[in-house]
C-alpha cells in the first residue's frame, strides 16, 4: 500500500469527501471542478485507488489532493486488502465516501464502517439492470428509457437505498458505446448535484427511503 501523498486546501465548513476510483476518474474530475465554487459545500480531501496506473491519481496530483494506492497484489488475501482500504480511507476522516468507477466489491466490514455515508453511481435506473453490464442489458431488453442512479452502498450489489435518479432516452440506433457515453454525461451531472445537496442539506435514511434535507 502506498501511503497518502500530496495535499489539499479546504474550507473548514466543507464536507470532506474521499473518492474511490479504479479508472480515468471522470466523475472525480466533475467533483473537483464543482468544488471550485465556494458555495458547493464539499471538497475532495483524498483519492484511493486499487490500481497504481489509474488516471484518477493524475487528477488528484494536479488538483493537490492527497492519494493512496491499495493494490490487491500487495496483500496476501482479500481480507487484508479490505483492511488496507479501510485504513487508507480512514486516514482522511471523510464525512462521505464516493465510489466513482471503483471496480471492486468491498467487504461488509468496510461498508458498515461508513453506513449511510458511502455512495455509488450506476448507469441504469435501479432496481432495473443491476450488476456489471447494465447498458448491455438495457439494450438487450429493448427498453425505451434508461438513466443513472446515485445510491447508498450496502452489503448487496447495487441494492442500497436510492438517493437520486435521472432519465436518459434510448435512441434508435443506439449501441453500447453511444448509450454509455450519454449516460456518463448525465451521471456526472447527477453525482455533482446530489453530493452538493447532501453536503449542504444533509442525507436522511429511513429503511429503504433516502432523502436529502428535511
**Helix- and strand-based class?**
alpha/beta
Q: Radius of gyration in whole Å, from Cα?
A: 17 Å
Strand order of the largest sheet: 1-4-3-2-5-6-7-8
Number of helical stretches of at least 4 residues: 6
* Relative strand content: 25-35%
How much helix, percentage-wise, in residues? 25-40%
* H and E order: EEHEHEHEHEHEEHEE
Shape: globular
Distance between the termini: 40 Å
The tally of beta strands, per DSSP, is: 10
Low-confidence stretches: 1-11
Binding site for N(1)-(5-phospho-beta-D-ribosyl)glycinamide: 25-27
Active site: 122 (proton donor)
Function: Catalyzes the transfer of a formyl group from 10-formyltetrahydrofolate to 5-phospho-ribosyl-glycinamide (GAR), producing 5-phospho-ribosyl-N-formylglycinamide (FGAR) and tetrahydrofolate.
Catalytic activity: N(1)-(5-phospho-beta-D-ribosyl)glycinamide + (6R)-10-formyltetrahydrofolate = N(2)-formyl-N(1)-(5-phospho-beta-D-ribosyl)glycinamide + (6S)-5,6,7,8-tetrahydrofolate + H(+)
Write the layout of secondary structure elements.
Layout: E1 2-5, E2 15-21, H1 26-34, E3 42-49, H2 55-63, E4 66-69, H3 78-91, E5 96-99, H4 108-113, E6 118-122, H5 134-141, E7 145-152, E8 162-169, H6 176-201, E9 203-206, E10 209-212
Parallel strand pairs: 2-3, 2-5, 3-4, 5-6
Antiparallel strand pairs: 1-4, 6-7, 7-8, 9-10
Helix pairs in contact: 1-6
Protein name: Phosphoribosylglycinamide formyltransferase
Binding site for N(1)-(5-phospho-beta-D-ribosyl)glycinamide: 25-27
Function: Catalyzes the transfer of a formyl group from 10-formyltetrahydrofolate to 5-phospho-ribosyl-glycinamide (GAR), producing 5-phospho-ribosyl-N-formylglycinamide (FGAR) and tetrahydrofolate.
Amino acid at each position: 500500500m502506498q501511503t497518502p501523498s500530496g495535499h489539499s486546501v479546504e474550507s473548514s465548513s466543507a464536507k470532506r469527501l474521499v473518492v474511490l476510483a479504479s479508472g480515468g476518474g471522470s466523475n472525480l474530475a466533475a467533483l473537483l471542478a464543482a468544488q471550485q465554487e465556494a458555495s458547493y459545500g464539499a471538497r475532495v480531501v483524498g483519492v484511493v485507488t486499487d490500481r497504481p496506473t489509474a488516471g484518477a491519481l493524475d487528477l488528484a496530483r494536479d488538483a493537490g489532493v492527497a492519494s493512496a494506492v491499495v493494490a490487491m497484489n500487495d496483500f496476501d488475501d482479500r481480507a487484508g486488502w479490505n483492511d488496507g482500504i479501510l485504513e487508507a480511507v480512514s486516514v482522511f476522516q471523510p464525512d462521505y465516501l464516493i465510489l466513482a468507477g471503483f471496480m471492486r466489491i468491498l467487504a461488509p466490514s468496510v461498508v458498515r464502517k461508513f453506513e449511510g455515508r458511502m455512495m455509488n453511481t450506476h448507469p441504469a435506473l435501479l432496481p432495473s439492470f443491476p450488476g456489471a453490464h447494465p447498458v448491455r442489458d438495457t439494450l438487450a431488453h429493448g427498453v425505451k428509457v434508461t438513466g443513472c442512479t446515485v445510491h447508498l452502498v450496502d452489503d448487496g450489489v447495487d441494492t442500497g437505498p436510492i438517493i437520486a435518479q435521472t432519465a436518459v432516452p434510448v435512441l434508435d440506433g443506439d449501441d453500447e458505446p453511444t448509450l454509455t457515453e450519454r449516460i456518463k454525461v448525465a451521471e456526472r451531472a447527477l453525482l455533482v448535484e446530489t453530493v452538493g445537496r447532501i453536503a449542504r442539506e444533509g442525507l436522511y435514511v429511513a429503511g429503504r427511503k433516502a432523502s436529502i434535507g428535511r
